[in-house]
């Protein structure tokens, strides 16, 4: 029987596992191992977390927290762990982590990623507009946000 998930700060040593989930979750991802390394080492606004279950990394999330604004950069789970409520746990972790500093959390999600949009809606996110060609090759993004004070 599986234990409770543990969320902790992402470390450089986690990147092989994180990147394996990245490739599985986002087939056309532009994020590389080098990009994640730069985020962890050089971006003072970046905060990345992994979720472990029984010692295995099963998901991760990242944000940019700049003054009083939070932007979710990524949320991903291993395919075998989807549909079990773990994404909700990651999003709630972000909300609690940023609440002392930020009032609003925003993100972009592919317009064709219906499961992710439904997940964000269930977690209180609302539509804020469309960013045309955000992902390139004609792929738009919905901008979504949640007010943490509502």
Automatic annotation (TrEMBL):
One cellular component term from this protein's GO annotations in UniProt: cytoplasm
Record-listed E.C. numbers: 2.3.1.266
UniProt xrefs under InterPro entries: AcTrfase_RimI/Ard1, Acyl_CoA_acyltransferase, GNAT_dom, YpeA/RimI_acetyltransf
Domain N-acetyltransferase: 5-149
Catalytically driven reaction(s): N-terminal L-alanyl-[ribosomal protein bS18] + acetyl-CoA = N-terminal N(alpha)-acetyl-L-alanyl-[ribosomal protein bS18] + CoA + H(+)
Broad class of the protein's primary localization: cytoplasm
Localization per Swiss-Prot or TrEMBL: Cytoplasm
UniProt keyword terms in alphabetical order: Acyltransferase, Cytoplasm, Transferase
A Pfam family hit: Acetyltransf_1
Single GO MF descriptor: protein-N-terminal-alanine acetyltransferase activity
The keyword Transferase is assigned to this record: yes
Functional note: Acetylates the N-terminal alanine of ribosomal protein bS18.
Family: Belongs to the acetyltransferase family. RimI subfamily.
Name the UniProt record assigns to this protein: [Ribosomal protein bS18]-alanine N-acetyltransferase
Originating organism: Jeotgalicoccus saudimassiliensis
